[in-house]
Write a structure and sequence with these properties.
Blueprint (H helix, E strand, L loop, with lengths): L9 H9 L5 H19 L2 E4 L1 H10 L10 E5 L26 H9 L2 E6 L19 E2 L2 E5 L5 H8 L5 E6 L5 H7 L2 E4 L20 E6 L2 H11 L17 H4 L8 E4 L11 H16 L3 E4 L6 H27 L1 H5 L3 H12 L2 H24 L2 E5 L15 H10 L5 H7 L1 H12 L4 H6 L3 E8 L5 E8 L4 H14 L5
Parallel strand pairs: 2-3, 9-10, 9-11
Antiparallel strand pairs: 1-3, 4-5, 6-8, 7-8, 7-12, 11-13, 12-13
Helix pairs in contact: 2-3, 10-12, 10-13, 12-14, 12-15
């Protein structure tokens, strides 16, 4: 047994394999042992195919920077031929006969995929507490949320099952659980990583996929492996000046950083999060960076609504598509909140959808103008530390109301009445800082720099200019070296 498994990041494990000091079989056995130890209490991994993973080693893993490193996929968009996708739902059970393009690129990097991780139904809410598989527990405090929708992957990395795991981000779903679980999570620029072959973009470009890691260099090296244009994609974005990994090996130039402390949804900033933000600003100044307090010119009354309208429209189309493909029995088992979002989407007009997208452009313009004079924007990743299970999902009474209304065409009425905002506010408030990155498509990262008094991680979010992940990686690596991460 390779007892030192948890002491290495993914690149470190791969270097041991390359040097012949450990075998891929030993690494996989170590990952399985760790999963057996902690997963019964965490519920991070919900599907395992370990025999297949050992066979993948026998068949010969591709030669790449991560050859032999155990790896897990979030059970949502990543199609892995021959293994089921349930997408956090009681109604879904799809077994693809192909690999998604991102999974194909992961395989080419040499990782050994052996399991899938828990996610909320269809990745729609920001906590991993699906009815299908049950809640995933935060490794730092049992009974507390990991965040979502990549909560299973964040917990698997935080608990040491794997050094790196796949995730996806449509409203903060990489950065949010990275903050609450105390790992590093970067959402790349729109179009940087592939989403095909099933789609060129998702949620009007809001969704981006990447990995959650314990070290910055692992995230950068995997983005070197996974990024790049694919056939049929709507974007073909600028390539980095060098490798993303090389960006982690140098300190950034002195940066001008905008500090924002105002949530973009009406909510209160937790005092310990605010204190962590102030401390981060001083740490950045000590490293030679300029930090200037300034708020983006964003209408917060429209902000959440425009995001919600577009997402509900997307959910309505998605549910209709699943009904056509898999039948009424499939969508009939969807959770009340999913059905309700689909109903709202069906109630809205194409004009409502386009008007909301114009609101997205206003936010893109505001952030573009702010980043003309600032290299990055700093804010908290989430307004609070992790909360106990049961606080974020809808109550039983709210679910009954949703079930009573989801067949009616009253979504626009509910939206205008304020009832939707009231019921969605626990989720929307926690997404107050992360949604902006999805609306704009800008790259952003959550860096695990602080902890609350009771030991819960507090991540700080940095948002960069479009296509400039290099500056983000360079700063994150500097913070990792000079200050250290609170993992």
């Amino acid at each position: 047994m390779f007892k030192e498994y948890g002491q290495y990041d993914a690149l470190g494990l791969a270097s041991l394999v390359a040097a012949g000091e450990v075998t891929p079989e030993e690494l996989l056995a170590a990952a399985i042992t760790r999963a057996n130890e902690v997963n019964p209490s965490l519920n991070a991994i919900i599907h395992r195919f370990e025999d297949r993973a050992f066979q993948q080693i026998k068949d010969g893993l591709p030669s790449g920077p991560f050859t032999g490193v155990p790896f897990v996929l979030k059970d949502l968009l990543a199609a892995f031929a021959g293994e089921p996708m349930t997408m956090g739902s009681r109604g879904m059970h799809v077994v693809p006969d192909y690999d998604s393009e991102l999974v194909r690129r992961y395989k080419a990097s040499g990782v050994n995929i052996f399991a899938k991780t828990n996610t909320p139904e269809l990745g729609l809410i920001i906590t991993t507490e699906p009815k299908a598989r049950g809640a995933t527990h935060n490794p730092h405090k049992s009974g507390y949320s990991t965040g979502g929708s990549s909560g299973g992957s964040a917990a698997a990395v935080s608990a040491g099952i794997v050094p790196m795991a796949h995730g996806g981000d449509g409203g903060g779903s990489i950065r949010f659980p990275a903050s609450w679980c105390g790992v590093f999570g970067l959402k790349p620029s729109r179009g940087r990583n592939p989403l095909g072959p099933d789609q060129g973009e998702d949620w009007q470009g809001a969704v981006a996929e990447h990995v959650l890691t314990r070290t910055v260099r692992d995230s950068a090296a995997m983005l070197d492996c996974s990024s790049g244009h694919e056939v049929g994609a709507p974007y073909n974005i600028a390539l980095p000046s060098g490798s993303f990994l090389s960006a982690t090996e140098r300190d950034p130039k002195p940066l001008r950083i905008a500090l924002s402390r105002k949530p973009l949804v009406t909510t209160q900033l937790h005092p310990e999060v605010d204190a962590a933000l102030v401390k981060t600003a001083q740490q950045l100044r000590d490293l030679g960076h300029e930090v200037v307090e300034i708020e983006p010119d964003i209408n917060i009354e429209r902000f959440w609504r425009d995001f919600f309208v577009v997402v509900c429209g997307e959910v309505a189309a998605m549910v209709a598509g699943y009904k056509q493909l898999y039948g009424s029995a499939c969508v009939g088992q969807f959770e009340p909140a999913t059905k309700n979002m689909a109903m709202i989407g069906r109630s809205l007009s194409a004009a409502d959808f386009v008007t909301a997208q114009k609101g997205w452009h206003d936010i893109q313009l505001a952030m573009g103008r702010l980043l003309l004079d600032h290299d990055l924007m700093l804010c908290p990743t989430v307004p609070t530390p992790a909360v106990p299970h049961g606080q974020l999902p809808n109550s039983k009474i709210e679910e009954l109301l949703m079930l009573a209304s989801h067949r009616l065409n009253i979504g626009k009425l509910l939206l205008n009445s304020g009832l939707v905002e009231q019921m969605a506010s626990p989720i929307l408030e926690k997404m107050a800082f992360t949604m902006m990155g999805n609306i704009t498509g800008l790259p952003g990262m959550s860096v695990p720099l602080h902890r609350s008094l009771d030991g819960l991680p507090i991540g700080m979010q940095f948002t960069g200019r479009m296509n400039d992940e290099e500056t983000l990686f360079s700063l994150a690596a500097q913070l990792e070296r000079e200050i250290g991460f609170c993992l």
